[in-house]
Amino acid sequence: MPNVLTANRLEDGVVVYLGNSGEWVHDLIAATVAENEASLAILEKIAGKSVAGRHVVGVYAIDVDLSNGKPSPKSVREKIRAAHRQTFKDLTELEIS
Amino acid sequence: MYRYDEFDRTFLADRNREFRTQVARRLAGELTEDEFKPLRLMNGLYLQLHAYMLRIAIPYGAITSRQLRQLGYIARRWDKGFGHWTTRQNIQFNWIKLVDVPDILEALAEVDMHAIQTSGNCIRNVTSDPFAGAAADEIEDPRIWAEVVRQWSTNHPEFTYLPRKFKFAVTGSLQDRAAIAFHDIGIRIVGGPNGTKGFRIFVGGGQGRSPYVAQEMKEFLPQQDLLAYLEAMLRIYNLHGRRDNLYKARIKILVNALGVDEYRRQVEVEWQRTRTEGADLPADEVERIRAHFRAPALADRPADFAALAAARSNDPEFDRWLRRNIFPHRHPDYAIAAIAFKEPGRPPGDATAEEMERVADAADRYSRGDLRVTYTQNLVLPHVARADLIDLYHELKEAGLTGGTPGLVTDVIACPGLDYCNLANARSIPIAQAITDRFADPQRAEEIGDLRLNISGCINACGHHHVGHIGILGVDKKGTEHYQITLGGEAGDDASIGTILGPSFPAEDVPSAIENIVGTYLASRTDGEAFLATYRRIGARPFKEALYAKR
């Protein structure tokens, strides 16, 4: 905790996050944050309907950091997913000396 | 090159129609993801971090210019304009939409390609020597037998649901360029009595979590006995291979648990049965397949040695390209030309649509439309007249494709890693790029000499880190990417598995660590001694002392 629900869109596999009104959004900043188990359970119920409705696949919760006032992923893996990087030769964000 | 007949085309069309229906049923909600996943995997379709990934089979790495152009078309139309050569001589597209896949498979079928046997617990795409049919040291073209195995294994009813995936490699040359010691079954074509040819069979090699060098299974198997023998090998594995534990399901675990002698004994008993079941191909069918790989009629094309010498002396880059990217062909007037997709700035093995088209054009002009993909994630033009080398070089240079040099420290093998892959613990691509940048001076890289550096983003070892002279394995250390370094691996003849040098490094320290290892080598080598030879002579200790002294 805090958590955000993420998934891949069924039709194209694009990374999405569960937003405020049950819609799936591209931008993590627009995701709904669950600050406790009860609110996470509510989000998971909404997400379950989206899976049944064939909007998304592979739903899971990720840990986010709210210290900047907006959700940002804690793990490297989720930072990469949230970045939606997509072009040839622009993959290096990590500074390696 | 094997050409599809009507049977092949009908099979593929039926299969694509079936998958189109399966995709439609998934999108309509008639199939759940759990039901659909095994079906998509049987058609090479994975769901990765950002999108679906489609892995397309390039049997034994052989591809025509027409097929390569079609891959370029697919990259441009349905991906983001590029593809990725894999370490099993295939290509992956990393930004595919599920809804587009049926159309992509149809586009592939137009050029006799598909994505079958690139995923799942079946016999996977057979790999081979990228110099097949051209190499100066070749006994027989291994593509003939790789194609025999391909046809035997495709949709084989008994071996479609094996305990785990199963990988074959076939080589027909004196030098192993197909890493046969790291495959479930490795096949080496050898000479037999009275001018006959046969196979030396190896079993139980592999990388991943439990790396093993393959063991010899049979010293000499006559060619006509191949399929019945393989059928017996697969049958014993299928019977005893562990299905209760994913990590112990590969044949390497079975062979090591039983012992190769006991495994061989059981196979020999089973072989007596399979050879009576008609598994072996009739001689005329072998000849039919062999005819597809008849050596091209190459006209004598003596090179203008004075012009070549002048070009070499005027252009050091051309001189280096000639030294490092050109390999001997069985015809003295011809050469094998390698294009390494590894220059600084490029994710290893990535090629743009335009590059695919430019290389296809070059293949048409200079290599009879014939190309190969290497497991080191490069391409090869197998039949280039030495008289055309200057023109080829300039054409490739204009396309930006002469900056990579095979076999040097910069020719890094790297898996897609955490930039794309669901299984990865750490990124491979930025590490590979940082190392390539560090050794970007081509003169210095050449002075360092032959050095295979391989990177995997997780223990599954798609980046072949176990067999790198220097291997780098990405690990997750308390939520951060760390990299473990191994030394002393080798994929070819005299195969070996690298040993871990010591504690892992954070990403930012990896290039300096590699620099340190290279420095130890340079200070220790004797004249003309390559990295691996030095390592084998002096052992890990000097490398370890130099690397960890200041930590």
Task: Characterise the protein shown here.
The complex is a heterodimer of chains A (97) and B (551). Chain A contains 2 helices and 5 strands; from the N terminus they run βββαββα. Chain A is an alpha+beta fold and 97 residues long. In chain A, strand 1 and strand 2 form a beta hairpin. The longest helix of chain A has 16 residues. By secondary structure, chain B is of the alpha+beta class. Chain B has 3 domains: 105 residues, Sulfite Reductase Hemoprotein, domain 2 (Alpha-Beta Complex); 159 residues, 2-Layer Sandwich (Sulfite Reductase Hemoprotein, domain 1); 136 residues, Sulfite Reductase Hemoprotein, domain 1, CATH 3.30.413.10. In chain B, 38% of the residues lie in helices and 18% in strands. In chain B, strand 18 and strand 19 form a beta hairpin. At the A-B interface, helix 2 of A face helix 14 and helix 16 of B.
Write the layout of secondary structure elements.
The complex is a heterodimer of chains A (97) and B (551).
Chain A (H helix, E strand, L loop, with lengths): L2 E7 L5 E4 L5 E2 L11 H16 L3 E10 L6 E2 L2 H8 L14
Antiparallel strand pairs in A: 1-2, 1-4, 2-3, 4-5
Chain B lengths: L5 H22 L5 H9 L3 E3 L4 E5 L5 E3 H14 L3 E4 L5 E6 L4 H10 L16 E2 L13 H12 L14 E4 L13 E7 L5 E7 L11 E8 L3 H15 L10 H8 L1 H15 L8 H10 L12 H10 L1 H10 E3 L5 E6 L10 E3 H14 L3 E4 L5 E7 L3 H10 L14 E2 L14 H10 L3 H7 L4 E4 L13 E8 L2 E8 L11 E2 L4 E2 L3 H15 L6 H8 L2 H8 L3
Parallel strand pairs in B: 6-7, 7-8, 16-17, 17-18
Antiparallel strand pairs in B: 1-2, 2-5, 3-14, 4-5, 4-13, 8-9, 9-10, 11-12, 12-15, 14-15, 18-19, 19-20, 19-21
Helix pairs in contact in B: 1-2, 1-4, 3-12, 5-9, 6-8, 7-8, 10-11, 14-16, 16-17, 16-18
